[in-house]
């Protein structure tokens, strides 16, 4: 039952889990830089009729189509003048097909799938590409971890906070974006939505620490 709930495409809930993770990644990037540097669904192929070599299960190269896009574009993530395309992949590690594979191998396969599909085209457009592969448990693969570390570094510099504080904050936000969606997949929608705090300066972290200590 759990396996079916986490992978069933009917009703769009799996897609909503992906979108929640995408929005969280974009929100953190905007917090670390500025909102104007973050955009969603950036085109990778647009009327170019390009092909991508997707080596999956021994199949022949597969067509991506004339219009294909990533999930988030972040301008200036790694260096000035550079645009990085992020693409999210949340994989169900409970699936029977992964029973004989380790978590690391499952996440590696997910990241490779996105890399084969988009990396060459992004490099042709003078853009960098990062696949953000997460498990339904909120576990993260190395490319996504590199993205999180970069956001942590930018936030620590911008807000003049401690790096160790920002590490927990960023990783918790990304992991919870994935894991909280599991509740929706397993139980359906709940009435009412808890708003997460919007933190724009270092003082807000002190207030958040005080609130957590009081509780």
Task: Write up what this structure looks like.
By secondary structure, this protein is an alpha+beta fold. The protein has helices spanning 2-7, 13-32, 103-124, 142-159, 163-187, 202-214, and strands at residues 38-40, 43-46, 51-52, 62-63, 67-69, 72-75, 83-91, 128-135. The protein has one domain. The strands form 3 sheets. A 4-stranded mixed beta sheet has the order 1-6-7-8. A two-stranded antiparallel ribbon has the order 2-5. Strand 6 and strand 7 (83-91) form a beta hairpin. Helix 2 (13-32) packs parallel to helix 4, helix 2 runs antiparallel to helix 5 (163-187) and helix 4 packs across helix 5 (163-187). The longest helix is centred in the C-terminal third of the chain and has 25 residues, at 163-187. The radius of gyration is 18 Å and the shape is globular. Mean pLDDT is 78; it is low at 51-63.
Q: How are the secondary structure elements laid out?
A:
Blueprint: H1 2-7, H2 13-32, E1 38-40, E2 43-46, E3 51-52, E4 62-63, E5 67-69, E6 72-75, E7 83-91, H3 103-124, E8 128-135, H4 142-159, H5 163-187, H6 202-214
Parallel strand pairs: 7-8
Antiparallel strand pairs: 1-6, 2-5, 3-4, 6-7
Which structural class matches the secondary elements? Answer: alpha+beta
As for the number of domains, it is: 1
Biggest β-sheet description: 4 strands, mixed
Helix/strand order: HHEEEEEEEHEHHH
Strand order of the largest sheet: 1-6-7-8
Q: What is the averaged pLDDT score?
A: 78
Low-confidence stretches: 51-63
Helix share, percent: 40-55%
Overall spatial form: globular
Q: What is the end-to-end distance?
A: 35 Å
């Amino acid at each position: 039952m759990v396996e079916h709930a986490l992978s069933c495409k009917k009703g769009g809930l799996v897609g909503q889990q992906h979108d929640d993770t995408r929005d969280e990644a974009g929100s953190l990037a905007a917090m670390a830089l500025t909102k104007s540097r973050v955009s969603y669904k950036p085109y990778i192929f647009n009327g170019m009729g390009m092909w991508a070599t997707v080596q999956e299960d021994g199949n022949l190269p597969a067509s991506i189509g004339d219009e294909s896009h990533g999930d988030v574009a972040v301008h200036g993530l790694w260096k000035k003048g550079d645009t990085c395309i992020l693409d999210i992949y949340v994989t169900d590690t409970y699936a029977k097909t992964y029973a004989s594979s380790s978590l690391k191998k499952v996440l590696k396969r997910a990241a490779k799938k996105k890399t084969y599909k988009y990396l060459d085209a992004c490099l042709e457009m003078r853009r960098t590409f990062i696949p953000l592969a997460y498990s339904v448990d909120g576990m993260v693969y190395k490319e996504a971890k590199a993205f999180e570390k970069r956001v942590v570094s930018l936030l620590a510099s911008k807000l003049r906070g401690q790096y160790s504080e920002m590490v927990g904050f960023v990783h918790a936000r990304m992991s919870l974006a994935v894991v909280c969606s599991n509740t929706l997949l397993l139980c359906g929608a709940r009435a009412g939505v808890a708003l997460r705090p919007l933190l724009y300066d270092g003082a807000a972290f002190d207030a958040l620490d005080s609130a957590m200590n009081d509780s």
